[in-house]
Structure formats: structure tokens, C-alpha cells
Please model this.
Amino acid sequence: MVSNEKSFPRGGIANLQANAENSPSNIVFGASQRKIKKGPKPKEKQIDGEHSDQLQAFSAETLTYDTLRDRMLVMGVVKAADATSLQIALPGRMTARALVADISDAYARVAQSYMAGDGSEYHDLTVLFSVGQIVYGRAIKTEIPERNRMSLLLSLKPAEVNSSLHHASIKKGFIFTGAIEEIQEHGCVIETGIEGLQAFVPIADAAQQHHIGQLIFLKVKQIQHSSAKSTCQCVRLDQDKLKIKSQNETNLDYILPGSIVKFKVIKHLKNGLEGSIMNESFRGYVNEHHLAEALHTPPDYELNEEYLARVLYVMPLTKLVYLTLNLDINVTTEKTAMEDDEQQELLKKGSIVEKARVLRHGTGGIVLLLNHKHKGLISYGSIKSNHKGNYDQDVVLAKYSSKSKHKVRVLGYDVIESLYYCTDDANILNEKLYTLEDLQAGDIVQARIVKPESKIGGYNVKIGKVNGIIEQLHLAPNMRYEVGQRLRCRVLDICLDRKICYLSNRNEYLNKSVKLLTSLQSAQPGSLFTGTVVKCESSYVLVKFCSGIKGVLHKQRLNELIESTFFAGQTTKFRIAGRNNDQVLLTLPEEKFQLGEICPIEVTNALDAGLEIKITYASDEQDASMTGDENPTEEFVGLMPVRFLSDYVDLQDAQKRTHPVGTHTEAACIMQNIFSLRDVPYFSENLTKDWHTVQVGDVLRAHVKHASEQVLELLVPVRNYNKLVKLHVKMLCPQTAREVPIMLVPDQLLFVKVLSKELETKTLTVSAKLSDVWSGQLTETANLVESYLNEVSQIRNKLKMLNAPIAKHSMGDKVDVIFKGIDPTTNNWVYHLDGSKNITALIIASLAGTATAPQVGSKQQAVILWIDYANDMLLVSNKKMDIEHISSSQELPQNLIAKSGMKAKVLLKLDSIVVCSLKKGASNPLIFCPVRLHPNDVDSSASACLRQGDFCNLAFIHEKLPIAVPETVWKLWKGVKRAAAVDAEEETPVKSKKVKIEAKIASKSNAQKLKKAEIKPLDNGKQKGVQLFFEDKIPAKANVLKCNAVNDTATKLRLPGISSFWETDLGALNGKRPEDTSSDEDDNNAAAEAEANSSKKKRLSAKEKAKAEVKEEQRLREIEERNADPNQRPETIDQFERLVLAEPNSSKSWIQYMSFLLSNTEVDKAREIARRAIKTIAFRETKELRNIWTALINLELSYNSSNFDDVLKEALSHNDPLETYLNLVEVLKSHNLRERLVSTLNLITRKFRTEPQVWRVTADAYFWLGMADRVQPTLQRALSVLPKNQHINCIVAFAKLYAQNDDNAMAQTLLDDIVTSYPKRIDIWVLYVDMLIKSELIESARNVLERAVLQKLQPDKMLVIYKKYLDFEMKHGTEANAARVKQLAEQYVQSQNKTLK
Model:
């Protein structure tokens, strides 16, 4: 009902004798109320009109979400507290939260100081509040849309709670809540929150009893008033002594929730009691659930009797007071308690009561008697939820007749109403796992995935009715997870504070033999337990076990070889080293495998770091006796890093792909739990050295552990040598002055030669110089490339077995490809293979050159140059010459064996090889050149003179395969081989001018060419006749004899005629002649020059002169034709100068000139050319000038970012600022400068907000940045500033961008709005249909055309629509659909004819 009063009364007694049953029912603010008109009174006694009507409640309803007013004062009880929040129970079985900022201003100030680093006065909320403490505050409603529910916050701040009070109205005896603002020597200063009121509480030892920000109940003892402020002295009260003396109080605002008053019972209501408080000054109500005892009923309380009651809340407008007679509110009843005689345990959450008896139908639900003692309630809402659709309420409630018995489950306990709320839902009753108490760490359960958890990268799951989390570290890899999927998991930890449990479905935890640490008492020294690494620091590794137990593995306990082998998520066994209170100290178990041992493994997981593997082996006798198994086995988990999968960087991902989960193969142990696939051949053919057998002069296969600019730390394969070998960079590359530092990565392969062995310090000194570890023979380089090609072939064969489509193709094959577009970042041409969209084909930008790109969707023939098996990618060429001249054969033609000076073109330059093709010949295989002569060739001297797209001269170094090196490299190393051979024949040492080089290289090369030892096959993990499968491999006797023969050789050979050869700069491979040469070479060169000069001086005959003239004429003609050919690409500075002179206004020519100079690292010259172009190009050619300025900006951004801003300002002053900024956006995108790009976008949208193209470019950039959420606000901003005639075009542009970025739903929404609002825009209809067809949304396109033909437009426009519809059905529909469209068109024409008639 709506009251007619001018204002609501502040209380008072209505006509208590009014008959409530004859009044209409109405609910206002939580209580059923009615109007009662008073009888006529004498005029002289009539009061004001505002008291003529009274609102009277005749039902003591409890508080609900609907009747709770926003910012209403209400009493609550603290249910739970953690460091940052409180859980507070409110009347009506509601729960609210209070956060740190909602306690008091003083506590917020202390918390801010704590965040700043000063925590001297800070105490968390668990110290300031106790469970069961009574508080009151202002309730704030907040909606949670994603959960479709309401959330409540309770502000306890005195400034908000007491905001309606004034200091002048405060009297002696007033009770309120205040916060301790300052602790002084003899008391505390109080934060009252009442305007103008200052309060002080004298408390002895206040600092020991109280904390700043703490809330306490206070009673005014003395007060002094003044006009501006009041000062009072208070005393602290306990919550059970908040009694207010009965007096004629006229303002309910000063009777705060939580206060205790005398309640006089006036009437028994159907759901509670009606009465009065404060000497019948105000009306009050007590709900049946708020009586003194849980099982009491309203008739148990006599009329006109007074009872002590606590104020719960006061309805804001009606000023009706709601109270509770239960003064002893506490939360301990949720737990167990023992009584004197009954010794009966109280109920827990989740417990089942078999025979719960119905007492009555009460407020909010069915009231039950549980275990003859406790009060329960089944809410009407839970009963309703069990019945879907239409149902008869009386029929449903009929089964809950008085004294009927039901099986129910306890859902929880309400501390204010002192009752258990229950349910009789069969699904909940039959659930075995309902609370966390039903679980224990180590249990195996079935979990159901609820949703992904983005914060932790895992999943939220349900185990019965219990919430759980599987963190990313504990997720089993190589599984596809979907919502609703069920997983078999192991319970790792149970967090009662967060009411959640942590699980794992990793195989390591699901293994039957796994040993879990679930309690600190079990952490006995020497015990082995499975744990997961959660954190890796420089000095320690943090390991997590079950039940939240964490252990620390200090790296000082480990040797330096294995201290860096741990990674987050690694699950393995750890041994307990000791325990210091709650801290568990760990160490690693004993090594199961030694360095170099080759073991059969099984791949269990594919990680970003590599492959996780397991090795199954027989367990120890002690473990076997404990388990009682006949054939007991154990599993050892290790890691095979990506770098250990192959010697070649570009094949590592492909090797990883060929070893899916479940693959069985062999791996060599490198250290503790690290295994290698690439080192299996080495350890199979060579005896693993230990400290006693390693000798000076041995060449060992090592790998990099740590690399800095000056020092390398290497791991050498020497057993019982737990140190890293330090190597100075000069011992790898002798050049001391280097413009570019050596770039080495961890686990990179290097060979080292032992120079010395210190027995006292047990240290090795090694060298990794190329001269120390390589013989200098190009046949070894050829064998290196051959092993690379063999590994590529093995990868292809394995992928064939895995039915990978990429394995069907080989290098040199001709394929059909379909053009997709040009990659904007690399300018590579992107294709996909005809018939297989999963395989991408790529033409490198250098191969494409200046050719015009084909149309998107066009088919072309191409030849495969290389295959990237890791990424399903083909590197191809579409040039006609390459297609005709390249064959798929992998064998070297007989006429090319040992040939040199063969002209070839460099097609591709990869990480390990360079792919070339011969210029001459009808059909030749692809030629493969090594990038490095040897793994220690860190300068890549074998390919230093090769650039992608250039021509070069090659020399073949393999007898069967098309393997070659540049001719300059071949000539340099060919001379070394000849000198070595001559020296070996003569056996006469020759001294060079500077240094004598001892030819130990030959002996080392012989030692490295040992024959492979015969390895017996494995039988169930063991060699026949051998006890363990992982015993070290023993070389064959022939190899041992060869090694001895090499070691006994004492002849020291010297190489004549190559003084200081090994120290020579490898830059000589680029065609530069070494500065230091021998005297013999000088004499030979001088003789050659003299012979050439003498030949020039000889007279030529007439016939020879004629031939020479013809030859010279032909040469000149070729030069002129080449210069005159417009398609000829300039390759020299002179040619570029000729080009820019011929076309001075062409920005393309100038930019090509700049690119040529930049490719030769001549940045300053390129900058000068750009400035020269700006001065040369005519000022009317604004577009050409803008292109040059863009190129200059790009140059400065790439090579001199400090000068970029100045160049940009200059470009803005000389060009159209808008066009310059738009070009700048593309430049920033190409350089991936995201922050600068965002600032540029903000600038242009402010400066050029009326330009439509600015908004389109901005939206496109946001999509590129991955900020798709900013596109929609950008559209709204654009529509707010652009003129209305530009709105449609702007929306269409944004729709196209959404469609290009695979957000078809948003694109359809935008275009659908346009065609609905502007149906006459035929171009929009056509664009809409084309977009849907391109997105393969055929049905949606058909629906749009159906809508279009229903429009009543002009005939010429309808003709376009019908034609579009017919073409659509002809291409994407059936003949029946096309016929239907024709019929619709005929009907339209007939209707138009009738209209004209």
C-alpha cells in the first residue's frame, strides 16, 4: 500500500485492538501492514495530520534480499575471518563480506602504511575480529551479472555507520561503535564517525589489549557540549552488556543494532511475536526463528511479559523494529560440543539425518526436528527447484505433513536463527563427496571439469559437490580438456580456508607405487617422496608435496653440473635430508644412470623445454620385498631438452614432432635426469672417459652450459668430473678484435681438445680452436652435410609412418600452389598447397624479387626447394627456370664429380645449409653447401661469401651427393690438403717464416674415424649375456688397436708453405687474399705475372685480331643490352646511379638504391641518398616525396632511433601531416613498436578526429595489437565526431575489419543494422552477402538474400538483388533453389506490370 501521510511517523502504538483478520494484506518493507483509521476525536485534541494514519504490521516476516534496503543499518555476526576479509552472517540467513577498506579510516591508513613497508602498527583482520563477534554496519547490494545473483557488502566504518548522528544529540548512556584511532599512554583516542564528537577511552595497558583500527562497543560516561563540537569520555562494553535503559526516546536513530532492550509481548502472530520497546514508545517484532531457544514457539511467551531482546535492524521508512530474543549468539554451535548427560555431538555440514520429523510449516520453509534435539529447515525455494514446469503447490507440500519423517542432508548452520538449513533432494542425498571433510590428501577421485581458470592456467573442477582446482603445473600433458570432461585425479591438498582442494591428473601421481608425503611426521630423513618443482631460484629449488608441505632443495647440495637442470612443473622423487620445524630440507636420490649410459626410454610428455621421458627398470631387492610383486619395476622420469634432440638447430623441432607421446627409442644419459638423443651415436662408438682415462690431446664432444662475452662454461663427457670447464673466447676464436660478438646458446655442441690435466686441483684445461679439433679436410665437412641430409631423410620416414601429409613431398618435386597473399612483416609470398590447406608454401622475398604478385586464389606451379617438417611448410620457387632446371634426384651427376668453378645461384640460406641451383644444365639436383666447416666454426666461414639471391662459383666435395662449397673456400683448404700430402710423402719438416705447425691433425682425424662397435640387441631392456641394459658400450677391438697405433705415433709432421695458416683471419674466405704468404708463393705469383705480361706483348695475327674484335664487340653489345633492359635489376652503384638519373622522380628507384646500400651496411650513404632524393624529386610529386620520407623514417627507426623524432618532425613539416601519420602507423607495425604505436593512435584520433580513414586505420591497428576490445569504443567515438553522412561508410569499414579478423558475429551485427535502417542501399546488401560467402556462412547469406528480395525497391535495384541471388544459388545452391529464384523474379516482374497497368 502507498501511505497518504506527508511523512512517515517515527514510531508509536497503533490501535492494538484492531481486528487484523478483516484487513487486506499488503507487504511493505519486510512486514505485512495495514492502515488503521482512528475514530473521531474532539477538535481541540486533534493532532496534526501526519499522525492520523498509522502503519501496522500483522506478520513478523524475516529479512530478505528484496526487503533489505540499500545502505540500511543491520546487525551481523562474524562467521569467519581471514587476513583481508570477513564473512558476516545477517538476519534472514544472508551472508555479507567486509573488506579491509570497510573497517575504519584508521585501519585503512595503517594498511596503506603496511603496503608502503611500515608494518609496525598493522594487524590483519584475524587479530582484530573473533568468530562470533557482533557488529553492525550499512549493507550495500551489488549485482554479479555473470552469476545472475546478488552479493552483499557490509561497511563497518564509523564514518558511514554513524553518519546520520549529530554530536549535539548525544547523551550520557548512549551506546555506539567506534574505532581506535590512536593509542596513548593512558587510553585510546576514538574514531567516532559522528560529526563534531571527540571521544577518549581511559584504558590501562591499552597497547597490549587493543590495536589501531579495531572496532569496539562504547558507552558515553561523561560528555561536554558546545556549539561546534562535543567531547566525551567513554567506557568499553562487552557485546553481552549493551543494555539500554528504558526511557521515552523519541528518535530511533540513536538505538543502534546490537543494543539490548526490554521487549513487551503484546500479541502472538502466526510467525512470531508483536510487542513494544522503550516503554511502549516503538513497535517491535520477533520472528519465530529469532526466539530465545531454537525449538521455542510463539505461544511459549506470555502476553504483557517483558523479555530482554537484541535489536537486529530498523526498517528505514516505517521505523518498525525487528529483534531477536536469542542474546547468546555464537558460532561454536557449528562445531561439536558435549553436554553433561547427553554426550551428543552436534551436526556438521554434509551430515545426513535419516529421520527428520516435520514440526510445522513456518517462515521460509518446513521446520524440522533433527535427532530429537536440533531445529532444521527445508526452504520453499529448494523444494521448488526439484519440480520443473507446472505443478500444484498443495500437492507438493502435502507430503510434508505434521510429524512425517524425511531423510535430509545438512547444508549449513545459521548462527542468528540457530537452525540447520537442509535439503531432501535425492541427488544431494546420494552424493558421497559433499564437503572437504569427506576427502583426504592422497585419495584418488573422479573430477568433472567446470570451466577454465585463466589466472592459474588450469581448470576448476567438481568432485561431487566439492570445488577443486587442477593447476597448470599438475595437469597431465598431451590431453585435450573440455568442459564436462571427467578425469581421474589424486587429491594433493585440502584448503579449508578457501574451501577448495587441489588435485593432479599427472601419471606420476596416479602410479600405484607412488609415495606421497601427506604429513610432516612422515618426513623422516632418508625417505623418498614424489613432489613437484614450483619455483626455481638461483640458490634453491622449491618443491611442493601433498597437504601443502613444501621442501627446499639448496643448490649448494648439488654439483654445478645439475644445478640448472630443474624447471617449474617437473615432477620427480626427492630424498628427505632433514627437517627444521616446519621446513623440510631435500636432496636428490642417488644417480640411477651414469654419464654415457644408453637406455631404452618412452616419451611421456611434450613440453616447451623438450620431451619428458620415463625409463622402466627393475626395482631394488628391498623395494621388491616390500611390495611383494614377482617382477617389481620402477619408473624413472627424466627430461630430454630440445637442444639435445639434434646437432642441428633447424631440425630440433622436427625431431620433437617425430617423437610423440608413447614413442620408444634410446637416449644417452648426460647428467642425473637429463638425457640426449643426439649423443647416442657418439657414446655408442666411443668409450666414455673418466678422470683416470682422459689424456692430454684427447678431443672430446662437449656442450655449452653458460655463455658470456668473454668466458664459456662447458660440460665435458668425463665421468667423476663434477665441474664445468671454463674456456676463454680466445681459445675458441683467436681473433681478439671482433665487431660482432660470438653468439653461443646453452647446450650448443662444441669439440674441445685437452691441453693439460692438473692432478692436484683435478682440473682440465681445454681448447676449442678450429686448428685443434679439425683436420682441415673438406671430406669431413662433406660428411657433416651428409649426416644432416640423412637426419632429414629419417625425419621424413618417421613422419610417413605417422601419416603426416608433409612427408609425401620431397625436395625438387613439382607442386601446384594457390596464392593467399603477402606477409606484411617479411614480404614473403604465402601460398597453400592445392588439395591440402594444412600445408603452407612460401616464396622468400629475395626469390620473388620485384615480380608482380599474382591474384589471390590463383593457382601456380612451383618447385620445392626445402621442406620445414616442424611447421608443415614448403619453401618453393615459381620461376620457370627453376621449375625446368631443378630435378628431384639426390645424386650427383657423374660429370660434376670433383668439378670446381660451377656457377650457381643461392636460393636459400638456412641455419645449417645453403641451398643453390646450377645456372647451366638441362636438369640438375639442388646443391647443398654447409654454413659451417665444423661445429666449432663459429664464424660460419663456409658461407660467409654467400648471400641469398646472389650468384657464386661452387666446387663439389662429395663423390655421390650434390654437396659443394664456394670456390674460394675450396681453393683455400685444397692447398692445405696438397701441402699435407706432399709433406707426408717427403717426411721432411719445413720451417715456415713465423710458426711451425705440428700436424697432429692427421692422427686426430684417424682417431675420430674409428669403426662402430658391434652392439648386441636388447632383450626386454637388457643385452643378451649382459646384466644391465644401460652398461657402457665397449668399442670394438679394431678400434682399440687403431687408437693405440695413433697414440704410439711420434712423428710430428709440419705443413710447408702456409705460414700462420691456422691463425689467419677467416675473412679470407670472402675472396680476400691473406696478407702473410710464403716466399715460395710470392715467387710463383711473380712468375705468373711475368708470363702474362710477356703474352700480352706478343704480336697477334690478322685472324686472331679479327676474332678479338668480334669478341670485344659481343661483350660490349651484352653490356649495352643489359643496361637497356628495363627489367634488369641493378647490382652495382653505377647501375643505380644510371637508374636514378633516368628516372629522377621515381621514388621506387631511389628506395631500391637505399635498400642496396643498407644491404651492404652503408647506413650513412643510404641516408645521404634519401636526402638527395628529396632535393631531386619535383615538389609537385607529393606522393613520391612522401614515399621517400617514409623510407627515411623507416631507416632512422631501424638504425638510429635517437634521431627518429627529429626526422619525423621534419617529415610532418614537408608533407601532409595526416598522410605522414598514417604511413608512420604502418612503419611502427612493421617494427613491432607497440607502445609507440598506441601513443601515435591516441594522437591521430585527437588531432584528425574528423577524418574517416583515421578511425579505420586505428581500428585495424588495434586488431593487430591484439586489443580487439578497444575497437567497439573506437567506433562509438568515430560516430560521435563524424558527420552523419559518413556514418554508414564508417560502420561498413569497421564491419570489414571485424570480418577480416574472424569476428563474423560483430560484422554481421553492424551490417544487419545498416540494411535494416537503410534498405535502399543495394551496395550494402551485396557487400553483406559477399562477406558471408567469404566466411563460408552460406545459410546466413541465403537468409540475407531472402530478406533483400522482400524489400519494395525500384526495379533497377531489385534487378541487382535478383541477379545476385541467382548467381549465388548457381554457385552455392542447387538447381531447385536457382529455379525458385527465377520464379520469384518472374512473380516480381508480373506484379510490377500489374501496378503499371
